[in-house]
Amino acid sequence: GVLHQLVTPIQWVMMSDTVDYGEWCNGKRLTGISFAGTLFVLKLGLALGGALIGWMLAGGGYDAAAKTQNSATISIIIALFTIVPAICYLLSAAIAKRYYTLKSPFLKTILEQLAQGAHRNEQEFTHKELQN
Question: Which parts pass through the membrane (predicted)?
């Protein structure tokens, strides 16, 4: 709930930063493909997450027709609402901290250079090529 609502905007800002970095590196802005790839992975994660819930409930003996569930099923339901999301968020944070290198000073330099029409591989690209 709340943690997800805090993280979601950050995820999309990080994506737009990677688009800026990509443009700075190769002179082409690939916003569409970057966000399409992100949405594909998001949908894949939702599908796998939904399957995981079904697998865990089936493994715990969930019975949809039963008025009460056994203790293993109750424990799994509680874990699905608490422990599993916490592990996923911690894992995501660890991955982002380790591999996301577009920190403020570096990103600011990239944005300033892009605003001036400059790129890392400036010798390889001219302004005419960038307009195509």
Answer: 39-62, 74-96
* Cα–Cα distance measured from residue 54 to residue 82, given in angstroms and rounded to the nearest whole number: 16
What pTM value is reported for the model? Answer: 0.70
Q: How far is CA 3 from CA 10, 22, 41, 48, 127, in A?
A: 11, 29, 20, 20, 43
132 residues of the chain, pLDDT tens digit each: 676 788 788 888 899 999 999 999 888 899 999 999 999 999 999 999 999 999 999 999 999 999 999 999 999 999 999 999 899 889 988 998 898 888 888 899 899 999 988 877 655 544 444 444
Residue 105 structure tokens: 């000073």
Distance (Å, whole) CA 5 – CA 7: 6
Q: State which residues form the domain around 46.
A: 2-131
Burial 55-64 (b: 16+ CB within 10 A, else e): ebbeebebee
